[in-house]
Amino acid sequence: MANELQLIRHRKGMLRLYMWSAQVVMFALSGVAAFLLRFDFGIPPRYSRQLLYALPVWILVKTIVFWRAKLDRAIWRYVSVNDLVRVVTGNLVASAVSAIFILFVVPLRYPRSIFVLDLLICLLTTAGLRLCVRIVQDAATHSRSQSDVAKRIFIYGAGDAGLTLLREIRNNPRLLYEVCGFLDDRANKKGMRLAGITVHGGGDEAKELVVRHKVDMILIAIPSASGVEMTRILQRCHEAGVECRTVPGLGEVIEGRGLAGQIRNVDVEDLLGRTPVQLEESRIRASIKSKVVLVTGAAGSIGSELCRQIARFGPAQIVGFEIAESPLFEIDREMRNAFPDTPFCPEIGSIQDRVRLDEVLCKYRPEIIYHAAAYKHVPLMEEHVFEAIENNVFGTLNVAEAAAEYGVEDLVMISSDKAVRPTNVMGATKRIAEMILGSLQNGGTQYIAVRFGNVLGSNGSVIPIFKKQIEAGGPITVTHPEMRRFFMTIPEACQLVLQAAAIGEGGQICVLDMGQPVKIVDLARNLILLSGLKPDEDIKIEFTGMRPGEKLYEELSSLLEDTVPTVHEKVRIFVGSGLPEGDLASWLGSLRDICASRDLGRLVVVLKEMVLDYSPSADLLKRMVGSQPRDASLTTTRISWDSTKQVMDT
Asked: Tell me: the pLDDT tens digits for 185-244?
């Protein structure tokens, strides 16, 4: 190791010696050339003495000035405009100091034009030497990139990102790309040249240009492109029959390895066009730093990402509460490796077990709870309605009451857009959970619900399902051609949850900005394109019909609620009671009795009475009619039928 360091120092010293030697030669040659030009390449004998006096002054002064300006420390192969400006400034200062010294100290008369000529020649030689080194290096890199194994590429986007990408490709010999030109949809750029590379035209000409220039790949360098623009670009690349990749946005570049080092395949997230979240990090940090934070459902898609995001803000400890053993083991390993300075404490348990919750809260005394544990799959919960109630309603009640008992400052519950005018049991249970938090707000623990839609890539979401169907050769199954959903990425959702928790107050429901709803069938088609295949040709799309409890359009607000903006543009707050008429505790008591007796008819009636805008699915209503056991009494059957009729009437 010591020998390697010594060798590195030796090479660095030799490089700087070569640089200084070259500059000293330039200083001397500039002075001689100034005299030769001044006297038409024939220096009179009486001026030879002036030259001998001036040369040492020029060399010494310029060497000192260049050393003080650290012009010897720049890497010439990467010389930039800023470096050239510093070279110009150094020459001006050095020439001015040299002229003053020679004119007022040296006892000889000099033609004034000598100093101007020396400045110009020295400026040209010192700047030109650096540019020559860069040109030679760029030419060598370019020749390597034009090897037989290099991929011929177009860069889509003749802007700042495209230029940066071009420079990194040229400077990195390991990136075996030969840039054949730019594509840009702005007509005024067609035919222009950017860093010596021609802008050939727009994306509508991609197919023709790819064939003409024998291009193998298109790199998309438009980090600010919207989802619609990315979809259009993807379709054009696919029509041209070439592979396409993209570069990340600014946030990813800052955290990563530069632009070229993060060239990746186009993801479905790019097609959503979600703008990067700008967080009020100081506010979030103030709410989390040095506090013990407990996350329920810590090994799930949202819970695990919450743990990662929370760890960024310096909590004293993160407690991961989870019923699934293997996923908890995995997130424990990940957190210990990724955030070694933040203690992560895995705890196995169910939110339905109040005794276990008390044990964990008593042990760690958390100051903040993020409640992400829930049953969330709509069709599955339509089949298991009692389990949905026991987990989503009474599990939430357990967590909320335990939080108040153990002095938790803030409890933030992850809710759902399906809680708005619910048409399924899962949405109704989430709405009741929101009501529970609102009813418990009494000035102690702050209860906040955060409502948002689907997240891409979460467990059970459509993206992993579609990918598996594509890998199997299709078909992709979509329930309805007009089915639309709100989508956001898991990191974005979790970041905004932290933001909402930092700005929300007790008893509020915060709603995240989900953008525009996306057609599921469009999502499926784009995913097929991203796989390099053609929709309806290589992979078929089949419509299977809506499942029990589903609706075509999800909503984030209801007509009964008013929304007000917050200090963050992507977080809004609902105001209004949102509580049913009557005693919520009495309703919950009825739900407990119903779950114990497994009376489906009474359950749906109570859900409808508690959540006035709940519309039970037709499938659930049919099951209500046939839910009574064969030996049930006539009276019980009559009650069940009356309950079903009551729900249908309302």
From this structure: 888 888 888 877 888 888 888 888 888 888 888 888 887 777 777 778 888 888 888 888
Q: How far apart are CA 342 and CA 331, in angstroms?
A: 13
Query: Is residue 473 located within the same domain as residue 609?
Result: no
How far is C-alpha 367 from the chain's CA centre?
28
Same domain, 113 and 157: no
The catalytic residue among 189, 291, 376, 418 is 418
- Pick the most confident of 9-13, 477-481, 551-555: 477-481
Point out which residues pair with 320 in neighbouring strands: 295, 346
How many domains does one find in the chain? 4
Residues 602 and 471 grouped into a single domain: no
Distance separating alpha carbons of residues 462 and 458, to the nearest angstrom: 9
Closest to 310 measured CA to CA, from 491, 470, 527, 187: 491
Residue 519 φ/ψ, nearest 5 degrees: -70, 130
Contact 434, 422 (CB under 8 A): no
Q: How far is 222 from 224, CA to CA, in rounded Å? A: 5
Q: Which residues are CB-contacts of 358 (< 8 A; sequence separation ≥ 6)?
A: 402, 405, 406
- Put the strands of the sheet holding 410-414 in their side by side order: 344-348, 317-322, 292-296, 368-371, 410-414, 446-451, 508-512, 571-575, 562-565
Reported as half-sphere exposure (CB side, CA atoms, 13 A), residue 640 has a value of: 20
Three-state secondary structure call for residue 394: helix
Per-residue pLDDT tens over the stretch 480-523: 887 777 677 777 788 888 888 888 777 788 887 766 777 778 77
Query: Three-state DSSP class for 557?
Result: coil
Say if residue 339 is in the same domain as residue 473.
yes
pLDDT, tens digit (0-9, with 9 covering 90-100), for 222-235: 877 777 777 788 88
Q: What is the pTM of this model?
A: 0.64
What type of residue sits at position 227?
A: G
DSSP assignment string, 584-613: HHHHHHHHHHHHHHT-HHHHHHHHHHHSTT
* Active-site residue, 418 included: yes
Give 448's strand partners: 412, 508
Task: Show contacts of 7-16: CB within 8 Å, 24+ apart.
Answer: 16/72
Q: 518 has which bridge partners?
A: 485
